[in-house]
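Subject: Interface between my chains keeps coming out wrong

I've been trying for a while to get a sensible model of this assembly. When I model each chain on its own everything looks fine, but I need the whole thing in one frame so I can look at the contacts. Pasting all components below, labels as-is. Any help appreciated, I'm running out of ideas.
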Amino acid sequence: METVQHLRVLSQIFSPTMFQKIVRENDTVLFERQTTKYFNASSYETNLDIIKSLYKTLQQQYRCEYVYKNNLVQNLTKEHSLKTTLILNELKISASKADLVMLNGAVRIFEIKTELDDFSKLSKQLADYQKFADEVNIVTDKKNADKLKVEYEDANIGIIVLDTKNKLQTIKEASSNTALFEFDTIFKILRKQEYLDLVADNFGYIPDVPNTLIFKACYELLACIDITFFQKQVLNKLKKRKLQKPDLLKSSNTPRELKHICNSLDFNEQEYHKLYNFLATERVCTYHI
Amino acid sequence: MYLPYIRGKQFELIGIRELTPDVLIPNKAKVSPIIEPVKDSSTLKTTIKTLVDSDINFTIIANPQVGTFTDIDAVFKAIKSSVGQSKNYQVGIIFHNRSNHNQEIEVLQKYADIVPALTIVHNATFDNIADILALYEEHFSIKYNVINLSATSKRYHRNFEESTRVELDDYFNAQTKNSDYLQVDESSFSEEHIYYQEEGFTGFSDYLSIGEEYSETGFLPYAVAIHLSYDEKQTKKIKVKHFVSDSNDDTSDIAGKFAEALNKLIAWCDQTGYNSVAIPIFREYHNNGHFPGLGTLKKLSLMNHIDLVLKLI
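Reply #2:
Try treating it as a single job with all components included. I did that and got this:
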C-alpha cells in the first residue's frame, strides 16, 4: 500500500507536462527519479511495465482526475470515429475551463469531479458550459453522483459515474441546452483566424479595418446570425483543430493508459515513435546522486 | 550620469537600439546602460554592436541572475563576438548572497582581454567588502559600484570611492494585475536625478518604468496598461502615468483594449503637451488604428523613460 503523499506525486507522472518532457524534450530524469523513489521501479522490466502497474495502482487506490479523464477518452475514442469526432482538453469557455469537450454532430462537455475534488465551482462551470454546449455532463464517483442526481433532477445536466470497477455508466441523460446559448461566450472561444473565416463564409468579405477594430467588427457581424446556426458553425470550425495522427492514437501500440495524454499533446508520427521507444526501454538500475 | 538597468529581453534591447541615433548618441557623456542579458540571442549581439559602433559606454553583466543565460562562458562568448576592438564598456558582476569571489575572479582572468573594466552591482552586503574589492582590483579596475539601495544598508555606499558610486533602486510601483492600475492612475517614481550628486553619487540607475521583478514569459492579460513616465512641472520629479483599458472582463480582443488605453494616452498628451521620442510613435498607432503587440508597448515605455531622464539631467 502506497501512502497518499506518494500516490499524489506518482499521479503527476500521468500528466501532459511529464510526457511533454519525455517525448518532446528528451528529459526522462524526473520520470526516473519519481518512479525509483516512490514506486520501486527496479522490479519492472520496461518503462511500459512501470506505467501499466502505476496506472493500475492509481485506478485502485487514488482515482485522480487523470484516471477519470483517461477512462472517458478511452470510451469516447472507442465509441466514435476519430474521422468525425474531436476531443479537446481544457477548453476555455467564458470564465471556466472545460475538462473535455467532444465535438462531432454536437458539442458535448464533460466536467470531471473526482472524489478528491472540491465542488464549489461546479454550478458556475455548468452555467458557463451551457452557453455553448448542446449537452453538459458531470463525471464523478458513485457517492457524489447520487447527491448530484437529486440536486440536478430538473436540470438538463447529464450525470456519468465512474464505478468502483472503473467502468463509466450514465445514470442521467443530458438533454439539449439550445435555449441557453449565448453569443458572446461562443464567439470568444474562437481564435482570430477562426472568426475571420466565419465572417468570410457568411458575408463573403472580411471587414477592411485596422487590427484594433477587427475583433469588434467581426463580433458585430456574426452577432446577426441565428444563434443555433452560429453555434453549429463554431462547432464545425473547432473540429478543424484536428489531430495530426488519429490512427496512432487509436492504435494498440499506444497503451490505453496514455490515451488522454496522447490526445491532448497531439503527437505527430515521429513523437509517437519516440514515445514507443521510451516505453520499450528497459529499466537499468541506476542511482541518481 | 544615468545608468538605465535593462533586462536583455527582445523588446528592451530593440528599444536601446532604436534610441541610439537620436537619444543616446547626443547624450553620450551622461548615459551608460547596464544590460543584464537573459537569453543568448542575436538581438543581444546586434544591440551590443550598435552601442560599440556608436561609441556609447555600457555595462554588460557576465553573471545574470535572471533568465536562462546562466553559463558564464557562453556570456563571454557573446561579448567577444560583439565588442570588436572596443574598450569603451565594462563587464558587470552582480554580487549576491552566494557569490564566490575567487571563482568569479578566476573566470574574469580567463577572459581578461575582453574585460576593459568592471561594474559591480551590489545586490548583497559583505562585512569585508573592502577586502573583496581589493581582490578584484589586483587584476581589474572598477569603474562603477552600483549599489542596490533596497538590498544594502544606509551607509554601505561609504565603502566605495565617490567617483565610482551609482545608486540603484526599483521605483516602479508594480501592481499584481494590469487592471489595478485603473485605480492607481499615476504613481510617484523618483527624484534621484535631482539629488544624486549632492548625496555623493556619480550616477544613478533605475529599472525604468518596467520594474525589477522579472518574468520569463508573458501571459494573456485581462487589461492592457501603458506606463508613461513624465516630469511633474513644478517639482521636476519623475512620475508615471498609467493608461489602462476599460473592458477588462476577459482575455479577448487585446488589440481593442490597446486602442482604449492608447486613446487615454493621446488625450492626456494633447492636454498636457507632454512629448518624448515615443509619443510620435504612439500617435502613429493611434492614427492608423494598428496594434503593434504587447512587446512594443514595453519598448516604447522604456524609450520614453530614458529619453525623459536624459532631458532632465
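Reply #3:
Confirming on my end. The two ends of chain B are 8 Å apart (CA to CA).
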